Amino acid sequence: MPKPAWAQDEITVDLELVIAVDVSLSMDLDEQALQREGYVKAFLDPRVIDAIEQGIHGKIAVAYVEWAGAISQYVTINWLLIDGKAAAAEMSALLAEAPIARLRRTSISGALIFSSKLFENNGFRGLRHVIDVSGDGPNNQGSRADLARDAAIAQGITINGLPFVPDPTGPLSLFDLTELDIYYEDCVIGGPGAFLLPVRSASEFAEAIRNKLVLEIAGIERPKLIRTSAASPRIPCDIGERQWQMFMDGDRP
């Protein structure tokens, strides 16, 4: 049976990458600016460009998504082919110029469901499909994060994480989770080679983002983490939903 026209025109790339960044109100303006600046700088970094050019095909496709609540996702940059320094600089410039959204609630599951659909009929055929999700809190709206993760893994998608872990010695709100890195490991990331890089201070943003992109693009062999909801998480995967219910019930710290 002949392939449909859109399949015949697909561009083969080493990686199809959806960068899904948290723009919920729990991220303050400084954090959101540092997050965006980290990606702007990363696509200009020679180490990121080298990782792209040294791939089997020497090119990747990237989409940049901003997300918050269960129905709050926005494609800031649709699929862009990056095959070297000039295209990477274009990605950086587009990110630098785009406004940053500010939206309510935190739905990691919504971000994963939305991002998973972006791989369909996008004009590319990637050797790997990866969603790179970052955020500063657990899921508190929509379906559970681990269930959305399992569905993405079943589609052959790997999910990596960049959790912004709150300082346990600082002032904490009801919605902060000081073990957010453990929550991400047990309830969010998954698939072959999945990994996370926790960020524990604003000064770590740029380096963590750059290192994460290099690892994702290069496809460096790492221990395979295939998490499913059948595993026993160290932190309940509905902890964010519990926090929200406490808030709605008026149980303030």
Description:
With 253 residues, the protein is an alpha/beta fold. The protein contains nine helices and seven strands. The strands form two sheets. The chain has a five-stranded mixed beta sheet, sandwiched between helices. Helix 2 packs across helix 8. The N terminus is likely disordered.
Average pLDDT level = 86
- Are there runs of 5+ residues with pLDDT below 50, and where? 1-6
| Adjacency order of strands in the biggest sheet | 4-3-2-6-7
What is the total tally of β strands?
7
Strand content: 15-25%
* Shape type: globular
What helical percentage do the residues reach? 25-40%
Helix segment tally:
9
Q: What order do the SSEs take from the amino end to the carboxyl end, as H and E?
A: HEEHHEEHHEEHEHHH
Overall radius of gyration: 18 Å
Helix-and-strand structural type: alpha/beta
Instruction: Calculate the terminal CA-CA distance, rounded to whole Å.
Output: 62 Å
Largest sheet: 5 strands, mixed
Summarize the structure.
The chain has 9 helices and 7 strands.
Supply the key terms.
two-stranded parallel sheet, 7 strands, 253 residues, 36% helix, alpha/beta, single chain, five-stranded mixed β-sheet, 9 helices, globular
Give the helices and strands, then pairings.
Elements: H1 5-8, E1 11-13, E2 15-22, H2 29-42, H3 46-53, E3 60-67, E4 73-82, H4 85-97, H5 108-117, E5 124-126, E6 129-135, H6 145-154, E7 157-163, H7 180-187, H8 205-218, H9 239-248
Parallel strand pairs: 1-5, 2-3, 2-6, 6-7
Antiparallel strand pairs: 3-4
